Amino acid sequence: MITHKDSTPPKVNEANLSRIANELKVHTRGELIIILGGGAHGHQAAHSHGFADPTSPKELLVKGIPPIRHNMSALASSVETSLSEEGIPAIVIPPFVSVTLRNGLIHDYPTNIIRKSLDNGLVVITHGDVCFDEENIVSILSGDTIAVYLAKELDAKTILIGTDVDGVLDDNPKTNPSAKHIPVINQENKDTILSKTGPSTNTDVTGGMSKKVTELLEISRQNREIIIFNLTVPDRLKFLLQNKTTICTRIQS
Description:
Blueprint: E1 3-4, E2 11-12, H1 14-23, E3 33-36, H2 39-48, H3 58-63, H4 65-85, E4 90-92, E5 100-102, E6 105-108, H5 112-119, E7 123-127, E8 129-133, E9 137-141, H6 143-153, E10 158-163, E11 168-169, E12 181-182, E13 184-185, H7 190-194, H8 209-217, E14 225-230, H9 236-241, E15 249-251
Parallel strand pairs: 3-7, 4-7, 5-8, 10-14, 13-15
Antiparallel strand pairs: 1-2, 5-6, 8-9, 11-12, 14-15
Helix pairs in contact: 1-4, 2-4
């Protein structure tokens, strides 16, 4: 959405980013955390340094830390700048400096700086990142995993997940134009839907749509509004922030 996924080296989609920042101005319902997926900035560098291959040597993974960090820092800085231009006071808090993983799962994720920033009226930007791992030297922490973790730790009531399709569909719409939109995912239909949703068609080392839905289902029973929507379509984000009806997929307990 805010990166050109097929561009090498990765580039920010300035037009989309500017539009999204403008739509965020309508947010008035409390605190806001913006979590960026890696897009081309994270996934290309991670893939080229073996993070999608469990047999990759540790030396190759470690060499991937600087380019991944550089790319994700550049992306987050672009988002911070766009928000600032819209008068939104935002700061970047990258996971790499404080988060540790164990076997690819969150081991320690301090949230006190995030909490203090929100308490003082700042919008927090964070993102998928490379982090040190207690067992595997380094691993990738996805933006989706961060969203689930912070929703639990900070008791978020609304989670909006922006993608490049109209929520969740029963097939990949980029290869099957007849793919059908799924308006609601719940405990009754989740198994059928998860058997149909697959990974992203782009280079993605963090799992794609089925992993995204699985992680969000984990927290759907805790009185939260969870919505997956198409962030590439103008005004969809704005309508959701204004509690207006728009095309999306809602994940419910």
